[in-house]
């Protein structure tokens, strides 16, 4: 049996196990055995999906048959909240169009949350991209100590610099950067340059963080809360980024033998950095990426769709492969991550067809689960029936 087949078999087994844990009223007559239902391939449509999707190997997969007993209500509510933005967005993956979601979004408005499992099973085609072998991590909304005014040892939390823009550099690449004194588009300042004061007169300061390690991890999460001495809280959301590549410091620590394989979870990294402050600061500066924030005054935190993200329902995904707003089913080896999610967010480190980042909210449990989340399994992306652009069906 192939690895993919074993993953599908595991998914079906856990579906059945999940059903068995919930009492179901006995039918008055014996229920007929479930009959496998083949899923017909969609008719080829033009235009074909983009080259990256073709290379990933899109295939149509039969939806698991035992979904209706699963608790899918959180993901269903997140999907319904995403529908207005989903209908307006251009699908970067090329798998669907905004119009393709109109019927299921309309139907979702009249579906009760307790019927979410059947809705996801019956109204969508379940597709796998590149075989569907998936890896998932976790993120959360951290809370850090801070101040509204500068205090000794505190570090600034920056808003968007006024000179951060999109421009075309001399090498022909277009992206985030700045126009220098000669009128030339250049890369924007790196983390070390920013920490050394390069944007002191270019960017607003929203607040001051008491601990540079906490601020660094708030940047990794992309949103969070700053609690001030008087007990008030400022909520921060992702606003922009300096255009530099993200470097995972946990990977650096493993490669250098500082932390053992599997030991580079968030808390272990924080502990090492606080025990070795000079080395920790240098390690953070190897990640040239830097995040700029904005203050959130309404619901939040907000994801990439400008819709509030939902604990235990939102995943960040790569929009080149997963339509933002689409439901996703993860059959993972971590029970916390197993089940329905909705792709409402993106992330600098979330790249690839089957790379996901699960959102857990705020608080101690969220911090613990997200900080230790490392799950492997398979993923299905759910799209409205018959709307997959140019997908190649495989039995």
Automatic annotation (TrEMBL):
Signal peptide range in chain numbering: 1-20
Keywords, ordered alphabetically: Cell wall biogenesis/degradation, Lyase, Signal
Catalytic activity: Exolytic cleavage of the (1->4)-beta-glycosidic linkage between N-acetylmuramic acid (MurNAc) and N-acetylglucosamine (GlcNAc) residues in peptidoglycan, from either the reducing or the non-reducing ends of the peptidoglycan chains, with concomitant formation of a 1,6-anhydrobond in the MurNAc residue
Domain Lytic transglycosylase MltA: 143-294
Region (Disordered): 26-48
This enzyme's EC code(s): 4.2.2.n1
Pfam families xrefs: 3D (PF06725), MltA (PF03562)
Record SUPFAM superfamilies: Barwin-like endoglucanases
InterPro entries xref list: 3D_dom (IPR010611), MltA (IPR026044), MltA_B (IPR005300), RlpA-like_sf (IPR036908)
Entry keyword annotation includes Signal: yes
PANTHER family: MEMBRANE-BOUND LYTIC MUREIN TRANSGLYCOSYLASE A
Protein's UniProt name: peptidoglycan lytic exotransglycosylase
The organism of origin for this protein: Sphingomonas daechungensis
């Amino acid at each position: 049996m192939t690895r993919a087949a074993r993953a599908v078999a595991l998914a079906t087994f856990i579906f059945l196990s999940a059903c068995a844990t919930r009492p179901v009223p006995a039918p008055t007559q014996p229920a007929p055995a479930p009959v496998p239902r083949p899923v017909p391939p969609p008719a080829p449509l033009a235009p074909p999906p983009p080259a990256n999707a073709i290379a990933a190997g899109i295939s149509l997969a039969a939806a698991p048959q035992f979904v209706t007993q699963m608790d899918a209500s959180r993901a269903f509510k997140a999907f319904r909240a995403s529908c207005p933005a989903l209908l307006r967005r251009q699908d970067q993956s090329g798998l669907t169009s905004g119009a393709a979601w109109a019927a299921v979004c309309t139907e979702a408005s009249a579906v009760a949350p307790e019927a979410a499992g059947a809705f996801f099973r019956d109204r969508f085609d379940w597709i796998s991209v590149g075989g569907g072998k998936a890896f998932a991590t976790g993120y959360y909304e951290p809370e850090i100590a801070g101040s509204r005014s500068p205090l000794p040892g505190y570090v600034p939390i920056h808003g968007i610099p006024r000179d951060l823009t999109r421009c075309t550099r001399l090498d022909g690449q277009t992206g985030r950067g700045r126009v220098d004194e000669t009128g030339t588009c250049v890369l924007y300042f790196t983390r070390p340059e920013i920490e050394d004061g390069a944007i002191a007169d270019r960017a607003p300061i929203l607040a001051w963080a008491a601990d540079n390690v906490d601020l660094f991890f708030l940047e990794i999460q992309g949103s969070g809360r700053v609690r001030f001495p008087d007990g008030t809280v400022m909520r921060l959301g992702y606003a922009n980024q300096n255009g530099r590549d993200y470097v995972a410091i946990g990977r650096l620590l493993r490669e250098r033998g500082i932390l053992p394989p599997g030991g580079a979870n968030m808390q272990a990294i924080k502990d090492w950095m606080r025990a070795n402050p000079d080395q920790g600061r240098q390690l953070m500066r190897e990640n040239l990426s830097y995040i700029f924030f904005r203050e959130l005054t309404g619901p939040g935190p907000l994801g990439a769709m400008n819709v509030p993200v939902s604990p235990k329902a939102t995943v960040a995904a790569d929009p080149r492969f997963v339509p933002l707003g689409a439901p996703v089913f993860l059959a993972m080896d971590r029970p916390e991550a197993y089940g329905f999610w909705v792709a409402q967010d993106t992330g600098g480190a979330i790249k690839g067809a089957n790379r996901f980042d699960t959102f857990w909210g705020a608080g101690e449990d969220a911090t613990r689960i997200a900080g230790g989340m490392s799950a492997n399994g398979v993923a299905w992306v759910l799209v409205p029936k018959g709307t997959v652009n140019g997908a190649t069906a495989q039995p």
